[in-house]
Amino acid sequence: MNLYKKYKPEKGYTRIIETDEMGVTGLSFAILNLDIGESFFEDTGDNEVILVVLGGQCELLVGHNGNKAHGLIGERTSVFGGEAYRASIPFRTTYEILAHDEPVEVAVCKAPSFLETAAVILEPGDNFSRDEHALMVDETPVHSISGEAICFYRLTPMEGYASQRIHSEVDAFEQTVALHDNSVLALPKGYRAELVESKFRLYCLWICVS
After folding, report:
1. Does residue 96 fall inside a structural domain?
2. Any idea what the CATH number is for the domain that residue 143 is in?
């Protein structure tokens, strides 16, 4: 089973892993790149969405059926420049991202959900209760990951690498691979990923169901 993809940065909205792809049934992941003056609009549909600003700054407008949030999000130049701004947006809610004074890169993480929660903008260091959300997103170089998850990796320098071992608790699958800058891991239920070696600075965006 192929559990890895390589993300090639592109302008606009890039779908990387969709629901029911690569053994992952309850998550999807995309990255949005906007230049100055560009915008992106979406309805969350039947998903809870968490936005993570990877770099740059943008204006976020959220509003539908009283689920409203508005503000400037993002302040770091890259994923290695401190903690992220995040925004949690409930199902059947519209949102718009506008890049005004600088380009912005935003991770768009989704999970099916019909939980009645309010939209909220989380500043660096803020958190929310797992009990109130279907989707959890964190930034940390996780050494051991189990259960259904998507992980997005960056390294500095970009030419660096790390080693990761994947094994299954339900079959005989086992594999050791090299992680590179912009590697994406899709981890199905019953699988475990363990970081074996990392001689370089490693960033991991960890997306899982709550």
Report:
1. yes
2. 2.60.120.10
